[in-house]
From TrEMBL, chains A, B:
Annotated protein name in UniProt: Two pore channel protein 2
Chain ranges of the Ion transport domain: 53-278, 398-668
Membrane topology per record: Multi-pass membrane protein
Main location class: membrane
Keywords: Calcium, Calcium channel, Calcium transport, Endosome, Glycoprotein, Ion channel, Ion transport, Lysosome, Membrane, Repeat, Transmembrane, Transmembrane helix, Transport, Voltage-gated channel
Upper taxonomic lineage: Eukaryota, Metazoa, Chordata, Craniata, Vertebrata
Catalytic activity reported: Na(+)(in) = Na(+)(out); Ca(2+)(in) = Ca(2+)(out)
SUPFAM superfamilies (alphabetical): Voltage-gated potassium channels
TM region positions: 45-63, 122-143, 180-202, 253-275, 395-417, 429-448, 469-488, 508-531, 543-563, 643-665
Gene: Tpcn2_2
GO molecular function: calcium channel activity; intracellularly phosphatidylinositol-3,5-bisphosphate-gated monatomic cation channel activity; ligand-gated sodium channel activity; voltage-gated channel activity
Keyword field contains Nucleotidyltransferase: no
Length: 720, 720
């Protein structure tokens, strides 16, 4: 009947508006039961369960067989890691697998059969699940003793396919690949030509004393290529040229030319190209997000205008305010936006809304969220008012900063004085007394500020929340210290009692005080700008970070598979042989006496299959690159390891860092421009996303484009 | 009389137009004799003498007392460098000094007394000359035995003040300093807070086995600061965290946080800021160049319009074409521009030129120089025409590339096969025969191309010039080889004869063949784009390179003064003590057995005063940074060296590299945009400068601005 139809239309409108808010595609089924399923699937609970499943399946690697969640990384000291019995991780995997099967079925059903065949991501998802199940069955039939587990490499795919932002970013990266490949090709040509030059230049001579360069770095083609590749990463920079340079200064020209062309020009050109290409694609993807939003709102308008209550005689299609109010009440959206839209709907006295008016109402969604702080309390007493004026003044905050600085300086002085003292000679009295005084001041400051601003206003500033939280933690720590060790007095150096020693307590307090000093940041204008840029960047970087996690995970698992058993703990003959080779070929580290020890450690750290996963997952790429270069400079590694590490260097150092620089440049330049435009508005905090950053340059889609797209909708039949 | 006046006006116009062409300021004296002096001063001969003087005075450092222009850099092997007798370099200096005195007097006279006091560069010039003379007198009175020669540090100033582009660039860099200082301050805060954290975290414990981290890296405040500063440059990257990491994996969080915040965020933020700031200033300086050009042309128009022959009754001021022709003939300018202006002057039939027409005539100066290749010869014979078609076709060039590639591959195969052979086992027959064949092909290719294109057209392409030159050199080398060693035959391995051994000759030929392979570049589209970008960059980079030379020179001289006598050759007790300290404190290099040897070499290389100048001047900064970091990681260096090297790192690595990246980004993005706009025009080569790059965004100065500026001219009294 008409009532059921109307209900369906209302439900459709609700879902379309929710799609618009979340920048989702509207190309899904729109019958009643599908809409229910769609809203259920995108409900918070369901999405939360899905995220949890992905986290669990990724985290499994930390407890699975070659894991190393031990405190120390040193094989000589550490206890064997806990090995879960066969079947435990497998049953968790099965549970996750079932969730993914439900996920993929619901997704496939919702977009419909025709769309399914066009969606490569969904097909890949199903394929991945099939391979996963097969490998799981194989694993169980071998009682978990199988040598290769390919399903582990597949796991990051689940993370990738669940985030539309990550898919979009991946698409952007994919589009810049041709240009990157051109520069990489150029780099390869550069490298190979210079390798040939080097081999001709540093050829073997009759005098064995004279060809040190040849012996160490340019013995054959793979050696020369490696030497120059490592020079490209500047890891072996002065070393590689020193034998030749010491023979004749002119040889340095070769190395200088190579470095200038390769490092200064080609590498930076890569940055320029990635910046140039990526900038365009980021804008494009934001533009398509905007289109999705406008389309969702337009679709909601169209279905609402087909409601039976609308006067059919009207020339233009329009929507009654009542219907819209009904939709708004049921739709899930940010309460601030909802209220703003309701308010403007009430202010607009008209009964019927045209398409343009409808679209305009929802522009609230695109606006920056402006955060307003609650007002200060109004005290009746004249005395209290004066106190409020004094302690609410910025100067009181500056005084607090000065006191914090004084505290830092006093800690620093004590540290410098105590630097070389034996722990038994140390006297904690001075620092204890001073910190006690400072923490009391911090407490007083916090209380006075709360008095002046009122608790609500105080807590509405993030700097105050940071400040207050740290002050309370410091207070608790100080009280605990006094409760266990008594009040400070000269020679205050009691023995170990309770959970932490006094010295550890004092150190912890000092660290927190140093950390608390960061409260000065918002007071320094340029610093505040930089820090907000960085925070924005972190927000916009989530998709990048996700892709990085995917890459890390895949590399870590590959590393485990490649280097499994390459290094075994001390005492084993194979390892000793390995170590002797290492000593012969690689450079010694640290002081001469512990050289074999440190090489061993490095090898143990980098080559042991059991360790690679936690190493790679806890060590950020900047760290890893240099380890890799370090490892590359040790000549003993096998060819596979070389290829693995070169790939890792290219992806994590060259490409990822350049993408990061591009994003940072983009963010900073936009931010800086806006900052220069409105320096005066200081009390307003904007919450900005990548969509909002580009708003000035985005193009609004035209009505024709929207309607054309709507008519192409696979499931929605519009009346007109 | 009127004739003399007219001559003066014509001369003024000539000088103003020359000023406009060279982007010079027109604020100089304009009376007859001053104009003569001005043209003399800016004549090629005078400017060439000035440049030569600057080169000579800068090059003096290479032969002055602590110089090291020896073949080897190793103090153990090298002969003592030639020491010029006292008075030789001093008399050369006096000559240069006299040239500079003439230079500064002429410059000061020409801009006039009033302007002189406003010009800080001129004042600094005079001051520098006074200090220079004083130091020179001191030096002579000590018979060249004085310990400190401050005048050496002053020398690069002469280079700086002579180039207006360098002064402009320096001004731009200067303007970005506040923002850079902010980020550097942020870096300093970051560093000091983390240092305090580190000192609290890695404090001395009672167990001596447990505090390796404290012993090696965080013993006291300077040590900790150095460790983290070096970590910021990623030179000690995995090493610094390994003792702590091996104790507890969680310690790595500290180092990861430090690296991510410092290296990934703050350092790249510096790039973003420099790019953002510098972009604006570069544009601004180009804008002011444009203004100078327009002003010069306008000034020429104004003086020409005051000529007596002009009808005084005309309402608008205007210039007769005759006067302009007279001026053009006498003015020194690019002949292409001159002809183009003459041509348009003749095409314009009018007798009198208005200001706008006058300005428009000179727009030719702003245009890209379009290089046109001369036509191919037209042969009468049908057979020759067919040959011309065949060998002038691009496919013939591609065939040449394929042959060159084949040659490269054959060399590469021989190199791989011969890599491990003893020199006595080597047989040069195969390579000799193959190269002989290939070189004949190259010769044939060159001759056929010349036949098809004609010599003029052939030489008008730079790729052909490159190709032909290398082919001729190869041919000469090959003929010389055959003349000395006879034709190749199996077992072709004669003993050393003549200037070079056969093996060296073959190697040289191979290197040239590898070098010749670069001719493929223009055939690959993207490579060609990249290479032209790089070449453009090199053109625009001259000012940067000049400033870099200034910085290098100053650092090298300071280094000589600071580290003079810090290292003395082997056998001396002081040096042995030094070496023992080095061995104890620093990490050994290369293989274990030659560790003390290599440390010695490093120390000898970097710390010896006699060597610093040539080291710094011949080694590009990318090289030096890593040496510096390397040296920093050796803990024995004194405090002065530390400060010196940190300053060097900041200036040459952080600031200069970022400036370079900014310039490259700017260049590439502009180039890329233009490249995308007109991909079809492939035969036209543009010669582009930094001025032309920005032309689309430059604003033309208005008539009012120009006239206001003209009326402020200190020496020129306009009639109206």
């Amino acid at each position: 009947g008409a009532g059921a139809d109307n209900d369906l239309y209302i439900n459709q409108a609700i879902v379309f508006i929710e799609d618009a808010i979340q920048y989702r595609s509207i190309n899904h089924r729109v019958d009643s039961s599908s809409l229910w399923l769609y809203r259920w699937y995108y409900s918070r609970t369901c999405q939360w369960i899905l995220s949890l499943t992905i986290t669990v399946i990724l985290a499994l690697a930390f407890i699975e067989e070659p894991s190393s969640l031990t405190v120390t990384s040193d094989v000589r000291y550490r206890l064997p890691a806990w090995n879960p019995p066969c079947g435990l991780t497998e049953s968790i995997e099965l549970l996750c697998f079932l969730v993914f099967v439900v996920d993929v079925s619901v997704k496939s059903y919702l977009i419909g059969w025709k769309e399914f065949w066009k969606n490569k991501w969904l097909m890949a998802y199903i394929l991945t699940l099939i391979v996963y199940l097969t490998d799981w069955i194989v694993s169980l039939s071998f009682f978990c003793k199988e040598s290769v587990r390919i399903r582990r490499i597949l796991r990051p795919f689940f993370l990738l396919q669940n985030s539309s932002m990550m898919k979009k970013t991946l698409k952007s990266i994919n589009s810049t690949l041709p240009e990157m490949a051109s520069v990489l090709l150029l780099l390869a040509v550069h490298l190979s030509l210079f390798t040939m030059f080097a081999m001709l230049l540093f050829a073997r001579t009759k005098d064995n004393q004279q060809d040190k360069e040849w012996v160490v770095y340019f013995r054959n083609l793979p050696d020369s290529l490696t030497s120059l590749l490592v020079l490209l990463t500047t890891a072996n920079n002065p070393d590689v040229m020193i034998p030749a340079y010491s023979k004749n200064r002119a040889y340095s020209i070769f190395f200088i030319l190579f470095t200038v062309l390769g490092n200064l020009f080609l590498m930076n050109l890569l940055t320029a190209i990635i910046y140039n290409q990526f900038r365009g694609y980021l804008l494009k993807s934001v533009q398509s997000s905007l289109f999705r939003r406008r389309l969702g709102i337009r679709a909601a308008f169209e279905v609402l205008s087909s409601l039976k209550e609308t006067p059919a005689s009207a020339q233009q299609s329009c929507v009654s305010t009542g219907a819209l109010l009904q939709v708004l009440q049921k739709a899930e959206m940010d309460s601030r936006c909802k209220q703003a839209i309701m308010r403007s709907l009430k202010m607009c006295s008209c009964d019927q809304l045209s398409a343009a008016q409808f679209q305009k109402l929802f522009e609230e969604l695109d606006k920056d969220a402006i955060k307003q702080h609650p007002p200060s309390p109004e005290y009746p007493s004249h005395y209290l008012q004066k106190m409020q004026l004094a302690f609410g003044h910025p100067y009181f905050g500056y005084l607090g900063n000065v006191v914090a600085l004084a505290n830092i300086i006093s800690i620093c002085v004590v540290l410098v004085m105590d630097a070389d003292k034996q722990p038994s000679e140390r006297d904690d009295f001075f620092l204890g007394a001073i910190n006690c005084f400072f923490i009391l001041y911090y407490l007083l400051e916090m209380l006075l500020k709360i008095l002046a601003m009122g608790l609500k206003r105080y807590l509405s500033y993030s700097s105050n929340r940071f400040d207050g939280l740290l002050t309370i933690i410091l207070l608790i720590l100080e009280i605990a210290t006094f409760a266990v060790y008594g009040f400070p007095h000269p020679g205050w150096r009691p023995e170990f009692m309770g959970l932490l020693s006094l010295w550890d307590m004092v150190r912890l307090v000092n660290m927190l005080i140093v950390f608390r000093f960061l409260r000065i940041i918002p007071n320094m204008k340029f610093m505040a700008l930089v820090v907000t840029t960085l925070l924005d960047l972190v927000k916009n970087l989530r998709a990048f970070a996700g892709i990085l996690v995917v890459v890390f995970y895949a590399f870590a698992i590959t590393g485990i598979m490649l280097f499994k058993g390459a290094v075994v703990p001390l005492g084993n003959t194979r390892y000793s042989n390995f170590l002797q080779g290492a000593q012969k070929n690689s450079r010694a580290e640290f002081t001469g006496s512990c050289a074999p020890f440190s090489i061993k450690k490095v090898v143990v750290l980098y080559f042991k299959g059991k360790n690679t996963i936690s190493w790679c997952s806890t060590h950020f790429q900047a760290e890893v690159i240099y380890c890799v270069l370090y490892v590359l400079s040790i000549h003993l590694i096998c060819r596979w390891a070389k290829i693995y590490f070169v790939a890792w260097w290219l992806i994590s150092s060259v490409i990822w860092v350049n993408l990061f620089v591009a994003l940072l440049l983009e963010n900073f330049i936009h931010k800086w421009d806006r900052h220069c435009q409105r320096e005066s508005l200081s009390d307003i905090e904007y919450q900005r996303t990548v969509e909002l950053m580009f708003r000035d340059v985005l193009e609004e889609p035209t009505e024709e484009e929207l309607m054309e797209k709507l008519h192409q909708h696979p499931h929605l039949q519009l009346c007109r």
